[in-house]
Amino acid sequence: MTPRTLRLTRDSFRLAEVFTISRGSRTEAKVLTLHIEQDGHVGRGECVPYGRYGETLDSVAAQIEGYIAGGNLAAMPAGAARNAVDCALIDLDAKTQGVRAWDLLRQPAPGPVTSAFTLSLDSPRNMRASAAKHAFRPLLKIKLGTPDDMARLEAVRQGAPDAAIIVDANEGWTAEVYTDLAPHLVRLGVQMVEQPLPAGEDNMLAEIARPLPVCADESCHSRASLPALKGKYDMLNIKLDKTGGLTEALALRDAARAEGYTVMVGCMVGSSLAMAPAMLVAQGADLVDLDGPLLLAEDRRPPLRFDGSVVHLPRRRFGGNTLRPSSICPKYSGGLGAAPPFGRRAKATVKPDHALVGCAAHVSLYPPPQL
Question: What is the pTM of this model?
Fold first, then answer.
């Protein structure tokens, strides 16, 4: 067995539209991708550094480079850096052993899941138009988090009268604003509200009425978060970039259920490489929000397949192909779930001197090459 070779790349994916939440807007998804190679196999993991948690591309890259220099995975804190390392190691181990990632982790084979589709924060008029455009989807997630959200709620419900709706305030409300809005959320058929109050300032949730389920996002990172959530939340949003990888995400899911919480599996805005491991955690989840690839103008090749809002693992593995990072494919014509054309290439902001070996391995979740 040869020594492992590790390298880190910075990749950027254009968004299909400007994505806005209560904390700001973005036009691209900037991610870090760790590649670990050994004996002809390459394991890869993607992470999305998040400023809300004090992360930057540089700080997370430094953490990963510390691991590359001889660090200990167990000593890394929960967060984006450990996520990239954990997923890349699982991917590599599964390939080296010739097994599927779910078999390696003793999890059931992942089936398709139905994902929410996110409508970013905008004017009521624009949010109504966006809701109408996506009214065919069974579940819409609305980004809110301002004192003036009532008009947005009404507009989205008018645009998508039959869709189920969940709301994400991204810590943008006060207890008073949430208390005023809660009856209207119920009246408009909202099924859940996510992180209405800032993490660390959410004790009021244990004291005020919760007429609909309240989900912890920014307040919940790993199993270490659980004691502080008791009595304040009904559901937990599990994201691999918060837990620090697939290993802890699976453990948090099981611990949350054991304590009586319902489970949501979410994501940062990243590529299919980041979503694929979360598909294991999403099996049997009460809510799933893995729409990251749908928000991109370009994605990894091959991408996860979307049939409307139903997420499937890719139909086949392009095993053995060596693809340059610039072969990240744009959103292709032919309908959701259609196979992307080989010849189409999109300009992507990635270092041109690296190759994605087999772009093929969203955490070993693809069928073997002969299938």
Answer: 0.86
